[in-house]
Amino acid sequence: MRAVVFLLAVFSAAAALEPFGAIRPEGPSVPEAQQAHGVNNLYLVFTDTLIDDARWPGAGGTDLLYMGYLGFGVAGGYISSYYYTDQRWRLEAGFYSDWSWPTEVPWGDVPPRYGDENILVYMTVEGEEPLGVRLRQHSFGFADGRNEDCIFILWTVYNAEAGMLKGTAAGLFMDMDIGYEGYNEFTRYDTIRHFAYMYNDPSLGEPLYFGLTTMGGLPGSYHGWSIHDSQFDHDGDLHYAMVSQVGRYQELPEYFWDWRLLLGFSVHDLAPGEMRDYPVALVAGDSLEDVYSSVRAARVKWLDIFGEVGPEDPAPARLTLSEPWPCPASSEARFFVELLEGGHVAVALYDLSGRRVETVHEGVLAAGRSELSVWTGGLPSGVYLVRAAGENGAATRRLVVAR
User: Fold this and answer.
1) If DSSP codes are grouped into helix, strand and coil, which group holds residue 237?
2) Is residue 22 assigned to a domain?
3) Phi, psi of 139 (to 5 degrees)
């Protein structure tokens, strides 16, 4: 019997503390009025071109900002956020799902998130026991010029109690429901610039292009296709199709749902207590050249925020930050900051809204390795960021606080 894993989707509330990185106050903390994001508006126009009504589910649904579904698993146990037809899950609290994301998004001095803290549990069929993998989803975006808008979604998978998971795969897949005829030529992938994209038929009007690309230091495999066959029980085929994108298999399954786009991250093992980030960005443009520019802008923005080296920036770091231990932490976590050259370094703990929670160190550190610690006993359970920044560069690590 195929297992289905335990999934945690968490959205942290913002705290009114100091921002960091590229997120800087430019006005009131809470905007007086909301505005629809440019990428969102373009995407609705795009889907309206291909679909009779760009709403979900059906014509009576709400306007949709649709990034696709995250899939994660091993060959014997695969799950995804595409859950509404699967009765093997139990919803513990309210969950912003793919069809209920708000079109109107507030833009202020911190990245917006969709929803409050919530838990989604995927159960196995036999015995209803969770496999023990948790996932946090954090969504935010930046409004800039039309071809420099970007929306980021960061998934963090945490192996809470599943034991060693061998050959895990993760990916983002999108089902556009655009029918059986005429649209299978409009999904592509760029192996040079490492992103997948889709576009409308130029004969239908103004051209629109949308790109999806991975962020951070985990470049993946970037593929797109269009297949229309489907079957009712398709979890295993989705996992099979996903890992085929990173060289595990040489062909796609014969039947699976009509996923139009897929970004597959590299296959890897996930040890007990280990976390792995899967960040992606949605960009838009009026031409493929505009999408090239948007992809570059999104990667620069991501590097500004998290200080990670992306696929297009392989320069060695002069400042490194170790993984905190223990992780999860209950009362205290320790970590190393290592410098090639001595200099001033600021080390602090942030929540996922980008707000400073605690200052760990502010001052000069000598060249070499320095061990620091942060007190976590008074913090709510959740995922935090340890960030070190100084004259030698910047680095960020994830820290889970659990009771």
Assistant:
1) helix
2) no
3) -115, 135
Question: Do residues 98 and 155 share a domain?
Answer: yes
> In sequence order, what are the residues at sequence separation of 6 or more whose Cβ sits closer than 8 angstroms to the Cβ of residue 50?
176, 178, 183, 200
pLDDT tens for residues 359-400? Answer: 999 999 988 889 999 999 889 887 788 888 887 777 778 788
The DSSP bridge partners found for residue 364 are: 344
List the domain range (segments joined by +) for residue 395: 319-401
Contacts of 21 (CB under 8 A, 6+ apart): 304, 305, 306, 307, 354, 387
What is the distance between the alpha carbons of residues 290 and 309, in angstroms, rounded to a whole number? 23
Q: How far is CA 191 from CA 10, 24, 84, 213, 214, in A?
A: 33, 34, 33, 11, 13
Q: How far apart are CA 212 and CA 316, in angstroms?
A: 26
Q: Is-contact 218 265, C-beta < 8 A?
A: yes
CA 70 to chain centre: 8
1 versus 56: which is more confidently predicted? Answer: 56
For the residues of 286-319, what is the DSSP string, one character each?
SSHHHHHHHHHHHHHHHHHHH----TT--PPPSE
* C-alpha closest to that of 138 among 365, 354, 379: 354
Model confidence pTM above 0.85? no
Q: What is the DSSP string of 313-374?
A: --PPPSEEEPPPBSSSBSSEEEEEEEESS-EEEEEEEEETTSBEEEEEEEEEE-SEEEEEEE
Q: C-alpha 382: how far from its chain's center? A: 17
Alpha-carbon radius of gyration of the chain: 21
Lowest mean pLDDT among 17-31, 34-48, 165-179: 17-31
**Residues 187, 198: contact at Cβ < 8 Å?**
yes
Report d(CA 133, CA 157) in Å as an integer.
7
Q: Which CATH number belongs to the domain containing residue 327 in this structure?
A: 2.60.40.2550
